[in-house]
Amino acid sequence: MNRKGFTLIELAMVLVIIGLLAGIGITALGILVKRAKVNSTKEIVNADVEAVLGYTFSIGKIPDLSTFLTVVRNKKDSFGKDIVYIYDSGLTSYCGRLKTNITVYICSDAACTVPVQTIRNVAFIILSGSANYNNQTAGAGEITTPTVIKVYDYGIKVDDYSGDLNRVEPYDDIVKWVTLSELHNNEKCKPLYIDPNQNLPEAIEDAPYRAKIDVSGGVPPYQFGTWNGSSCDTTSLWNGYGLSLTTDGYITGTVNYDTDSNKGSITGCEGNITISNICVKDSLGDEITIADNLNIKVFPQQVKILTDTVPPAYEGSSYNITFFVSGGGDSYTWNIQGSLPPDLTFSNGQITGTVQSDSGCSTPSPYNFTLEASSCGMTAFKGYVLTVIDPDCNSSGGGSGGSGSCSSVTVFNAGDIRYYEKGTVFLFWCIASTRCTEFTSATVSNGECITVYRDFRCRRIESSYGFNTLVNYDTNNNCEVNYNNGRLSDR
User: Fold this and answer.
1) pLDDT over 80 (residue 397)
2) Other CB atoms closer than 10 Å to residue 417's CB: what's the count?
3) pLDDT band with cut points at 50, 70 and 90 for residue 399
4) Which Gene3D superfamilies does this one have (predicted)?
5) Could you tell me where in the chain the CATH 2.60.40.10 domains are found?
């Protein structure tokens, strides 16, 4: 058999081919190993993010740098480099904030003059320098002032962090961040919030009112104020219509929506108080304003006939009494049931006329009637007894009641402590012209009236009388009458 070995040239070629194949295999193996480490590092970064979120949602704050090292399981990436943790220091107090100091730019070129995307209010960032072992993004630690952190497309030659390897090379950092809006998905991390659609309780005119503006999120205690266009001024608080806003969010006071109306009454039977520019600040300094107005619906008080009794009438004398009403609107529909003395008529809350006179002494029976006053869908009823007195039956022959010669009548308080306002008669009302004063005595002239109250602020009406009513009680014609806890008598 003829055997022939390799020539030197053939042997050299075989060795070259084997070397090339070995080189290709080693390179391919290196690529596969690098890819596996990159994927493993991505999983480490994702796991560390989830660990921080778990801590935040259970504690109600994000960890600081030292706490981060105890929270995460993997503190190094697959290349043996430390995992980088960047966070807003203000969020370690509480995660329910409205804004942070961290903004992320997504950049498609090294200059990043116009970011592809801007992510604001980032809570924290976790990153790895990846395969080139060079953190090209930012250093670990807390952010205390507004800071922009740039994240580049892979392959762009850049190095924004000189604290690691200070060299420009293709960007390959693995970066993941979490924003405040993601934290807010947890109840403990809700931001400061005022519901613009909340319904404040309805109010009654000339009645006490107290309501609370609802606020949630942030960190109590809250301070309310007035929004000045750029910030919440807690030294300026809304007030109006007899109400005021307290710094802790209560609206209190006595409603005075319609200042021109009778007490407890509202023109048009309904009103609306608008509260605008309300804002609130929490203990962390976050502040928010209500975009829309808050509204309080105002309704009148129940219609009430204030006049308790009617004075007696005298045969042959003129008679005039005005019935005072509160609540409802500015106008009332009147109705009367029962009987009045002959020649006396009732119209629009007044009884007027001259009682028929006869010769000799007569004792006419008392007249019973009920008045009905209606306004704004509400109705009040009150019954009265009107007694007619015949002067011919007066043995002393004195006293002419309403036909007397008094130009004014002095009313003396003979009962408990009371307060009064004096005024003038307008339509059916006594329009006050003096301040609320303790009632000892008061002089009322023709065309004037007096309203008596139970409280020193003159809000709880007890009785109201005009001049003609007072004259009718002055049976001895000395121009003086007594007032005793809602009842008149001659003096």
Assistant:
1) no
2) 11
3) very low
4) Glycoprotein, Type 4 Pilin, Immunoglobulins
5) 304-490
Question: Is the full-model pTM beyond 0.90?
Answer: no
Beta bridge pairs of residue 239: 244
Look-up of token digits 């600081």:
64
What mean pLDDT do residues 63-77 have? 92
Query: Which 8-state DSSP code applies to residue 392?
Result: G
Give the integer Cα–Cα distance in Å for 486 and 450. Answer: 12
Please give the C-alpha separations between residue 356 and each of 313, 343, 367, in angstroms, as whole numbers.
10, 7, 14
Q: How far apart are CA 469 and CA 455, in angstroms?
A: 23
Q: What is the SS3 assignment for 228?
A: coil
Q: How far apart are CA 383 and CA 486, in angstroms?
A: 16
Q: CB within 8 A of 18, min separation 6: which ones? A: none
Residue 187 has what pLDDT? 65
CATH code for the part of the protein at 192-299: 2.60.40
Residue type (1 letter), 244? S
477 phi and psi angles, rounded to 5 deg: 60, 35
Q: Which two tokens stand for residue 429?
A: 């009302």
Superfamily of structural domain 304-490: Immunoglobulins (2.60.40.10)
Which position has the token pair 């004075």? 311
**Average pLDDT along the chain:** 86
